[in-house]
Amino acid sequence: MKFTISLSDAARHTITLATLEAYVLGDGRPRRTKLETLGYLWGFSREDSKGTTHFHVDLMSLSISAKRSRNSVKPNDQAVRLKSELMDRWAPHLTLIGDFHSHTYENLAEVRDIRGFEFSDADEASFLDDDFLWERANDQPIMLAMTICKLARVHEKHAAETIRSNIAHFDVGEFRFWLNAAVGFLDASGSRRCTGNRPSNVKLRIDSRFYNYSRDRLVVATRALFPRLLPWELKFRAEKRLSRTRRRKCGNWHVQAGLTVGMIMTPRAHLMTCESVSDLTTRNINRHSYVPVVHDGGFGGLFFAERFFDATPPSGKISERVSAPEETLVGADASISRLHPRRRPKAVSARVRTSVTGPSSSRQI
Ligand SMILES: [Zn+2]
Hints:
- The protein has helices at 9-24, 77-90, 108-114, 121-128, 131-136, 231-240, 244-248, 261-264, 277-283, 325-332, 334-339; strands spanning 2-7, 38-47, 52-62, 67-68, 73-74, 95-104, 142-150, 161-164, 167-172, 175-186, 192-194, 202-205, 254-256, 259-260, 290-295, 298-304, 353-354.
- By secondary structure, it is an alpha+beta fold.
- The protein folds into two domains: 2-205, 3-Layer(aba) Sandwich (Cytidine Deaminase, domain 2); 266-354, no CATH class.
- Strands 1, 2, 3, 6, 7, 8, 9, 10, 11 and 12 form a ten-stranded mixed β-sheet that branches.
- It is elongated.
- The structure holds zinc ion.
């Protein structure tokens, strides 16, 4: 039986903020600082195929009505029921999965002397006795304890450090925080148990994934994810397995029967320009029916080249025979025209740049 516990950024922030405020400012009353505090945790849990249960704490709600002191914090049993009523309405997808409380100490030596970051016997006893929590958490609740003390100086740290798999600590300014996690479960006889302070199978994941494990590769999608390929997809994949030399000639790849990539896309390096009709018909060796005309850096219309496939091209410039964009597009592909219903034909100047091997979706096939 293994467990992992992770926290959302919001949950980690609010738990740390609550612990810090109760420690530094207390409850606002005179000489009432370094107080413990308490809150409830909502989130998710899921058991994976290997039997590890993953808990994720999505949010923490601080209990204002709990009775706080320097050595203990006593929950108001009505608080968790009241909050659950609201959460059932607002966030029914979340589960009450546990609670959190804080431990406070004067300094680092005090924490180390008595291992103040561990759960106390009273912590475990009250956790095991919390019927409402166990019922809501499906007999697998979690318990978090955050310990805080003030350091003599600020220590440079770059990440959280682990004491045991279920205990991590980190510094914020001159304060040090420890986060301890335990999981409750039912043993073979159905009695409540707690992983407690022993080395256990609880792994606390305090950090986001700023790191990578050795050989921890991301698994990419495989063909198994696409079991039902359309016929043209199968053909396209078969073409992709051709030799590298063949691959360079992308014009030979078939994206569907009779339609090649080369008919749809043209490398920029292959674009040519010409001005006369005869020049264009000579260069139009792929027999594109329509050739786009560029004017002032934009689309100026289409030249209907097909009419000269088997005829002697006339003398003169393309600019004198280019069709207005909307007029021509309706003939070549009405669906494109409908996308630009308000487009107006542009006047074509004497200088027209024409691409004879440009986009040729209008080619007759
Ligand atoms: Zn405690």
